[in-house]
Specification:
Layout (H helix, E strand, L loop, with lengths): L4 H11 L6 H12 L3 H13 L5 E2 L6 E2 L5 H4 L4 E8 L2 H9 L5 E5 L17 H9 L5 E4 L5 H14 L6 E4 L15 H7 L1
Parallel strand pairs: 3-4, 3-5, 5-6
Antiparallel strand pairs: 1-2
Helix pairs in contact: 1-2
Length: 193
C-alpha cells in the first residue's frame, strides 16, 4: 500500500521516540488521522510548547515551570536530605509514594563509558557543591540497579567519602512485595540481604 508523504513523515518522526517501533508508529499515526482536527491542533500546540514552557531547576535539575522547581520551592521539605536520581522521571516515581519528603538532585543520566558518558557529562560537580555547603546530612543514592547506576553510585560515594557528618545511603534492592523467595535468583537474594 502506498501511503502519503504526510503519513510517512509522521511515522518516521514517531519511530524516533524511545520504545516506539515501526508498527506502533503506524498505529499511532492512523489513530491520530481519525481524530478531529481540533484535537490534533491541541496535541501539536502541546508538543510545540513543551520546551518553551519548561525550565530546568537551577538547584536540582528537575523539570519545572520556573527556575526553581516546585519541590525545591516547598519550604516544608527536609532541607538536610538529598535523593540522587538519574532522570526527572525517577522523581515522579518516588513522589507517587508520598513517603519521601526531602530534596532531589537529577544527574541527567549515569556514567556509561560505552555511550561516552563520563562524570563530566553529569551534574556531579553541582551535587558536590551542594554537599560542601554543609546543610546536607544525608545523601540517598537512588540510581538504577544496573551496571551504569552502580558505577555512578560508587563514583559519588568515593568522592564524598571524606565529607564529615554526611550519611551516605543506597536505596534498598531485592525482592518485591508479594514475590516468592523460591523463584528469586541468587543475585537478587544476595542484594536483599
Amino acid at each position: 500500500m502506498k501511503i502519503t508523504r504526510a503519513i510517512s513523515r509522521l511515522i518516521e518522526s514517531l519511530e524516533k521516540l524511545p520504545g516506539i517501533g515501526p508498527k506502533t508508529a503506524q498505529r499511532l499515526t492512523f489513530y491520530l488521522l481519525h481524530n478531529p482536527q481540533s484535537e490534533l491542533e491541541k496535541f501539536a500546540a502541546a508538543l510545540v510548547n513543551l520546551k518553551k514552557d519548561t525550565k530546568e531547576c537551577r538547584f536540582c535539575f528537575n523539570v519545572g515551570e520556573t527556575e526553581i522547581c516546585a519541590i525545591c520551592a516547598e519550604r516544608n521539605r527536609d532541607q538536610t536530605q538529598i535523593c540522587v536520581v538519574e532522570q526527572p522521571l525517577d522523581i515522579l516515581a518516588i513522589e507517587k509514594g508520598s513517603f519521601y519528603r526531602g530534596l532531589y538532585h537529577v544527574l541527567g543520566g549515569a556514567i556509561s563509558p560505552l555511550n561516552n558518558i563520563g562524570p563530566d557529562e553529569l551534574h556531579l560537580r553541582e551535587l558536590i557543591r551542594r554537599i560542601k555547603e554543609g546543610k546536607i546530612k544525608e545523601l540517598i543514592l537512588a540510581t538504577n540497579p544496573n551496571m551504569e547506576g552502580e558505577a555512578t553510585a560508587m563514583y559519588i560515594a568515593k568522592h564524598l567519602a571524606g565529607v564529615k557528618k554526611l550519611r551516605l545511603t543506597r536505596i534498598g534492592r531485592g525482592l518485591p512485595i508479594g514475590a516468592d523467595l523460591e523463584y528469586a535468583d541468587e543475585q537478587t537474594i544476595a542484594r536483599a540481604f
